[in-house]
Give the backbone structure.
Amino acid sequence: MHEYKEIFTSDLSEVEKVAQAFDLVTSRVVDHSLKEIELFKAMGDKESLIKEHIKIETIKFARGLFDEAFKNAVGRSAWDE
């Protein structure tokens, strides 16, 4: 949470702060889900595995929407992917 708070006390513009915070949070969710997927594979839990895949794809979709809005507002991508 320290890293998250640092974003909002930085010298970045307000729109950059939002982009960086969104990137931080959504990247962590995806990283956590990837670890969960490995666990569910090992356990043979197909139902939970499907749910995690859906979660990751939903987050990726939201990141794409955010990036498109950011490009329209600022003229460049919100982050490097």
In short: The CA atoms of residues 7 and 20 lie 7 Å apart.
